[in-house]
User: Fold this.
Amino acid sequence: MKCSFPRALFVCAFAGVVALHGQDPQADHSSPDHAPPVQTAPIYTPLTLQQKYLFAMNNMIGAPALSLVLLKATFDHVADSPGKWGSDEGAFAVRYASRFGRSFVRQNLAFGVRALDGEDPRYFVSGHGSGWTRTRYAIGHTFVAKNDRGNWMPAYAMLVSNFGMPFIANEWRPDRHSVPREFRMGGVAVGFATGSSLWQEFWPDLRKKVWKKSPTPGVCRTWLCAGMGLNH
Assistant:
């Protein structure tokens, strides 16, 4: 039985949300006789519209973002993709500009959606439960986001930006348009977003083991977020 790529992606997204359903990373499942002290959850503070755009800017011009653009452009140049751009130094500059343009389009699309529906771009670390429970949490929270009221909602910005960007980027590329290919590229981007959620969930633990000290509390630790007071 054939299964189209969009249908398979929908199944993956649905599975992530189902995995998320009914579980609370802060919930206590221990017995009443040995219940740990109750911890008060931190008060949710929404981002302003300016802070949301600065978050998007950091994903465009922050050092990790620009390094990733350079890496992708290098791979494109070595693979001579697309071939019509050639293989000289000028072609590498074009490929770098193309990769940066794709990042620019993706982040601005995401910001536009967040400005309309009030999504929070931050990932909120669970930090509780078994490794499998936290993995399910991270996968599920790739497809949901907090809104300005602190409630969970579908992550429309992630889906719109990742699936919309390839169609826009092909306007300046010499490749022929192919709807299945653009959807595949969107699916790959969603896969990277899921990997990013997993990384943000477990990186504080890994960093604590490597440096033997607790990481600074927060969900945004980049230079731009820290400078604009985005640390949570």
Notes: The chain has eight helices and two strands. The first strand starts at residue 144 and ends at 146. Residues 45-227 form one domain. The first helix runs from residue 5 to 20.
